[in-house]
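Record type: ASSEMBLY
Status: queued
Input:
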Amino acid sequence: MQLLDGLSVSKTIKLELKEQVEKRKSENKKIPHLAAVLVGNNGASQTYVNAKVKACNEVGFDSTLIHLTEDISEHDLLFEIEKLNLNPDIDGYIVQLPLPQHINEKKILLAIDPMKDVDGFHPENVGRMMLNMKTFLPATPMGIITLLERNNIETSGKHAVVLGRSHIVGLPMSILLQRNHPFGNCTVTLCHSKTKNIEEICKSADIIIAAVGIPEFLRGDMVKAGAVVVDVGITRVNDASKKSGFRLLGDVNFEEVSSKCSFITPVPGGVGPMTIVSLMQNTLASVEHKE
Amino acid sequence: MQLLDGLSVSKTIKLELKEQVEKRKSENKKIPHLAAVLVGNNGASQTYVNAKVKACNEVGFDSTLIHLTEDISEHDLLFEIEKLNLNPDIDGYIVQLPLPQHINEKKILLAIDPMKDVDGFHPENVGRMMLNMKTFLPATPMGIITLLERNNIETSGKHAVVLGRSHIVGLPMSILLQRNHPFGNCTVTLCHSKTKNIEEICKSADIIIAAVGIPEFLRGDMVKAGAVVVDVGITRVNDASKKSGFRLLGDVNFEEVSSKCSFITPVPGGVGPMTIVSLMQNTLASVEHKE
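Status: finished
Output:
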């Protein structure tokens, strides 16, 4: 078994990005600028946003964190979005999800300028992805494809099983894996809560992407020997023995599955860091697109 | 075996549309107006466009056929598109594909106002479909879902195998079958030219959508007893015994497959008429949306 070491790959990509930023500086070109909008004080969201800002600093991007209070009105949040759309210095921005209950997430999503939507969540970008047109790919699926690519995982003609049909991971993942692309061309089966005989389907998979959000959902007896397993799950589980009070569990039972598969992502250190560098790559692409 | 009789279902839907047009007339509301752009003299394209105009007449819609010569420039075609976008009387329009080689289809597609894109091909509408938002669904996949619905075919938890990943049939079909919807919730496997052991995958399917464009691709020994089979293919094959000089073949070997499955669409008279009524339904929805 080999680790699909997202942390290590992400470090390489950050170095590549840093080089490109330096090259841009030497050519007097604009430094990429990513903004992140965080509403409220959700612990996990704060951690994610902080990691994104930190990554910007590491590669030399400009970054702006817009931290708004939990009780901001939808109207005022839309006003913040509009300011970001109009600000020529901001090349891309994300609105960290989930948003508070009183705010309509879809309305916010639709307000983001597709040209600055580096998360790739706007319908126009989603549609362009589906039609295999140039666009911002959603960061997590994009990061997974990059991870497969950098590890030279053969995908063409393989049976990929995607567990979970979320709009930000499972569904776009199924699209990217099937498309006619050097790291696509899989036969893809998309499974979800209504799927019957999920064990049997998983056992037939050459590649499994687990994105159901259920800790240790994928067990050893569900995986074929030699399969490639990507674990997107990251759930905080209470753990009094930890200083933080919790530990992080993926959707894959690592101990059982790792002994059977050929490649597997760890949690943490697998998909998470790849998501962040994908966001950086999209932000750089946004600046380049304007040139 | 029962026929999924698209012709019969389409007649029912046309009657429903006709009733709605008459109701609109009595309320002095706008009559839906569909336009079709046809470039050149491709025989199949002319047949399709004529069928759409005829269907408009049948249900009482206004229709406009814009027939342009094969040698029209891309620039002039874009000008025609812009006129349709700006014409408030046109509620929806389609540009019949394929277009001549010298015209960039994607450029034309992107020029269509998404609010008039009743074919559902514009990236914005494709993305909205994928995100399960209100939109114009692409006519053929929409027609197939309606056909399943009107025949009360249970889909939830079933294994649906889609053959073909085209942007206008296979890929959107896979999206619609997986979504959380009364006639969705399938476990979907999307197969294409790079798929290995396609026979085995088909044999595991409860529902098969054949959209590969290869006459009689699906044979009897590839289908499980009791499966539901939808044939999207329609290929003209030379046949000297016919007055037209050709006959139409689907992607399914009807004789072999029909003896094994529970439901099957005929060709012609299956998916084709459903595609046309879906276009009509989208055009009506377009008028209603503006009210």
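Annotation: The longest strand of chain B covers residues 33-39.
Annotation: Residues 28-114 of chain B form a domain with the Rossmann fold fold (CATH 3.40.50.10860).
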